[in-house]
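Progress note, sequence design subtask.
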């Protein structure tokens, strides 16, 4: 059996809700996490693998370009949403990917009703969007391990420093 192309794992919110409902009916544990995933790095990979290990299915909500700009500034995202979503969807630990344009994924969390909400350990528990909703339905919130020196903002700064230090060729 050949693997599904990554693009087939990118779903609309409606299609995702149907898949998640099916998973719940089958007794599967659904884990939800979210982020920008602008430049995929080892911190992302380890966090997503850790999140996936918490349950049977992993849903990853990816900020669309407009919400990344609001959160990170006018120079972001580096890559367009469709590219970021396809890269995340290609990871073996990810079952489904959905985009969202709002500042937070709260509408998706309320709609999908995940069993587990996973977020990076750099987020304080009280600052995790959707925590109250997930816990109120009997689910749990897990703060994922922090991977030292693995941050997109740091990578972008390093790339910019490296680019400025290179001598320019004359054309």
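Output:
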């Amino acid at each position: 059996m050949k693997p599904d192309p990554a693009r087939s794992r990118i779903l609309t919110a409606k299609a995702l809700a149907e898949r998640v409902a099916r998973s719940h009916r089958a007794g599967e544990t659904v884990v939800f996490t979210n982020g920008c995933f602008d430049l995929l790095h080892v911190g992302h990979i380890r966090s997503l693998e850790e999140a996936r290990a918490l349950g049977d299915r992993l849903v990853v909500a990816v900020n669309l370009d407009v919400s990344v700009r609001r959160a990170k500034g006018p120079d972001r995202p580096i890559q367009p949403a469709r590219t970021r979503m396809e890269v995340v969807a290609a990871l073996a630990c990810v079952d489904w990917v959905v985009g969202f344009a709002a500042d937070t994924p709260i509408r998706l969390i309320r709609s999908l009703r995940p069993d587990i909400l996973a977020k990076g350990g750099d987020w304080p528990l009280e600052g995790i969007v959707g925590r109250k909703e997930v816990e109120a339905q009997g689910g749990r919130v897990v703060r994922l391990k922090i991977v030292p020196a693995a941050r997109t903002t740091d990578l972008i700064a390093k790339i910019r420093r490296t680019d400025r230090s290179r001598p320019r060729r004359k054309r």
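The domain at 6-165 is CATH 3.40.50.620 (Rossmann fold). Work on this subtask will continue into the next period as scheduled.
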